[in-house]
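Quarterly update from the structural biology core.
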Amino acid sequence: MREDSTKHKIIEAAGPIFAEVGFENGTVRDICRAADVNVASIKYYFGDKKNLYLETVLYARQSRADRYPFPGWSEGTPAEAQLYDFVSSLLRRLTVLQGAPWQVNLLMRELMKPNEACRVIVQEYFQPMFRGLMALIDQLVKCPLKEEDRLKIGFSIIGQCLHYRYGTAVMDLMVPAGLRDSFEIEQLADHITKFTMHGLENYSEQQMPSQGESD
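Predicted structure, tokenized:
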């Protein structure tokens, strides 16, 4: 229990430092000072700084997933309702339009300037999530899709959510104060869902053969 507590304390100290200055500039000495442990603790618990960084990124990702899990849908839940839930959960994980905790800032930094940790979180976490989104897209589009089109649609949905994370500062300047209540999580999830649904409906119509072609 004491070892687990110390290891957790080191990760909690390393997280904000890595989130602010990155892996290269986050020093073991600064992390140990923040955690109030000796430098030898890094080698004892993690082996080296590289492994500490990896475990900190994985911890950050898991903490967001634990706080905002994707819902489990019962059989018969409409696909549009599932899409809304997916978008809403992702927006909450990203803490859009709010000051982000270090966990979100660290994950965003890793995705923008990937280290080895990026490969791990993509393979173990993001790809399973994305496969679930692809299966949902297959329910929503009423025609066969090329694989490249399925991927583009999935990235477009996620991109809309990421916009509200990366664009927070600019949006604070552009959105009048009187309209900001319309940019809460629920409103954004509803907008992204409806926007996506309209796009998919038009996409389905364009892909479906006309009556003359089917004859």
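The radius of gyration is 21 Å.
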